[in-house]
Amino acid sequence: MWKATRRNFLIKTGAGLGLALGLGWIGKKAIRGFFVEQADKGTLVQFSTDTEPQYWFEVQKDNTILFHSPKIEMGQGVFSALAQIVAEELEVSINQIKVVHSATSHGPIDPNTTGGSDSISSTFSQLSMLAASMREMLRERAVTLLGISLSNLSAQNGYVIGQGKKLSYAQIVAQTSEWSLPDTEPTLKKPEKYQVIGKALPRVDLVAKVKAEPIFGIDATFPGMVYAAVVRSPYFGAVRGVVNAQEASKSLGVIRVVEQPEFVAVLAKSRYEALMAKEKLQIAWTSPTPLLQQKEVNDTVQIGKGDLTVVQENGDVTGLEDNEGNIKLEFHTPLGAHAQMEPNGVAAYYKDGKVVVKMSTQSVKNTRNEIAEATGIRAEDIDIQPTFMGGGFGRRLYTPHAYEAVVLSQEIGLPVHVLFEREQEFQNGYLRPPTHHKLSAKLNNGKIEAIEHQIASGDVAFGSSLVPSFAPTVLGADFGAWRGGLFHYENIANSSVKYWRCQLPFFTSWWRGLGLMANSFAIESFVDELAKKAKQDPISFRIAHIKPDERGQRLIGVLKEVQKISGFGQKVLPEGHAMGVACATDVNTPVAQVAEVKLENGAIKVLKVYCVIDPGLVINPDGVKAQCEGAISMGLSASMFEELNIEDGKVTPNQYLQYQMAQIRDIPDIEVSILSTGDAPRGVGEPPMGPIAPAIANAVATLTGTRMTKMPFKQYQFT
Amino acid sequence: MLLKFDLNGKTQSVDVPEDMPLLWVLRDTLQQKGTKFGCGKGLCGACTVHLDGNAIRSCSVPVSQVQNKQITTIEGLGKGQLHAVQQAWIEEGVPQCGYCQPGFMMATAELLQRIPNPTDTDIDDNITNICRCGTYYRMRKAIHKAAQLNQKS
Ligand code: FES
Ligand code: FES
């Protein structure tokens, strides 16, 4: 039921500000709906019942709308998609909207994070409702101002229009000091009436990015800012001993060396001088003995080690693994890095008990809480002003540098900039955990009678401060690790997924798609082998095992469409080429991909990837395509090239290039086709990470007869 | 050390340590933030600028080496307008997070100086920067488009 109170809306008029409208209250019904749906998917619930009023929109004097986005732009195009949603219901053109990141001092604070592919799916209905509410309030004011009845007034392009008269939103705001709140819930548009949603508009941040405007955390400045170079632990488990800062303190440009329980930092006039002086610090580190080696990591992350939880069980799979006649395969994926291009950077300025923090973070609220806890500054006195992120991929859910910068600014009384050096990103950030998978199945009459997937993984969600403490109890297993590890082939009578929690002595956690890439690699490669054993076409074989309920139908839909656009199984390919198919459903979005490969000097060359995705209601089809292209490229990079090892307690390699990643020469032609079933948006950023590795592996298996079971694929050479 | 060089058509004098990498002089001393730090070791290309028209990785060039030379950064690439490469980047909708993009655009602009109409192999061989968001597919198209735009004008 629609129930708004003055406290829920924040209405403020004033010079230069115009109307700022905020709604802390969000339809309770919507929240419950989300909770059930999201709990079912194992992802976090977005947007709690925050009762504090917050600014979402401001009508400015020039009739533009400032939209304070609680979701952070990290390349995924969320600013553009949210702007389109707002424009649709507020009845303004997209060019009238300026999107800014919401600062914690006055804008809406995301109670969760920007991540998990749910920025749009979790905000769509609330945001539509907010924008529509504001539109209705403007229309109702126009009734009084124009003396025209509500039914004769329409909102268009930032104007309320009727009977030959019109008022801009800004004019209405200028003539209003008291606002009345709508009594009834505003009516939202039917999808067939959408004019902005569904359009492939250019991203709202396109020009700023092409002009290279200073929009990132690393670019943030304050007048009089100084630079810190922070010493971080050189290897896992190292304990800092005595610090000799004599030489460093004398180094050029150095202002001070600050020693704190958690870190040591050199403050200098320029970044370069700070970095140079840091090298001159003499620190006695105590190393754990023996130092951690890769072998221990490999021995730890294994099926049969760690704690076991049964994640999914249907029917009976007893004996499946032990029976000689059954089909079995094991898969491995290595440690990986986020390697986001912008190293983490933050500028903080503490003054008179308050602090302003400009930085790229995926977790605004958590970052603020961590600063509050570490420094004792009250949360409301900490203004996090989020910047654009130079890539996120989960890395910016971990932001210790924020409180470091605040502490340093407190110490010195000046604004301070802290940066993670690239080597520190590798060593002192966190990593994608390695995984081990065992699959076993039994075929009967060309169908899978029973199947089992065992996953061993380092932690993803567990151990992260972002996950509520009840999560392990409620969910049993690390939902980050088993994400993508369940069977979307529900038409199998006997199936089981078991998860072994293997805890490593270093920090592993979130990565784009979490466990999706590793789990899809294992399952979809295995299913392809089963299809081969059953002597069936891999697409029909898959479809035969998908339960044709609503969700299953959508998965079948993308598989059929990818067959159509790629000609899989039908098209005559040039000599030496082969295609492989794979699919996945992630955050309720099904994706199917076909990869066409050949060999080039004995190495795999991916020539073309066809991708079909069904993310429900599409806000911006070009944005969806860009996310598919990006996820395919990142998934290809990770599966073909990327690998980290631990040597003497250190992550190695710890620089680009040595950590081999895809470059332009490795990227195939990519064709994306979008299906759109249903009228609610679902996630896009991560689901296409699922099928790419197995699609490549399945193509290579067809071409060479070799079943690749280990990433990175570059280790396989073909003659 | 007092040094002079030409930045985007204007003479700049800076008083900085002579071995300070050009990248930090640009970003911190001169507050030109368009040139990005990715690795500091010449490996990723985020810091690419032009030195007398040649693409260099500014994180690995001490500022003393640019004394009396001409530096062009992304801020000056289009000389007050959008350069053909930037125009092509807009038309193809290339950037995602955008962080790597200045480096790629600078590398591309220089490639088109040397090879006005590059083949795919030319692109593969010459554009070795890194983009984690995976905008490579659109970049290739944008590079070809920029070559066309250049030829038209
Ligand atoms: S920062 Fe210069 S090449 Fe990476
Ligand atoms: S656009 Fe994000 S790294 Fe290239």
TrEMBL record, chain B:
Keyword annotations of the record: 2Fe-2S, Iron, Iron-sulfur, Metal-binding, Oxidoreductase
Domain 2Fe-2S ferredoxin-type stretches: 1-77
Family annotation (SUPFAM superfamilies): 2Fe-2S ferredoxin-like, CO dehydrogenase ISP C-domain like
Protein name from the UniProt record: (2Fe-2S)-binding protein
A Pfam family reported for this protein in Swiss-Prot or TrEMBL: Fer2
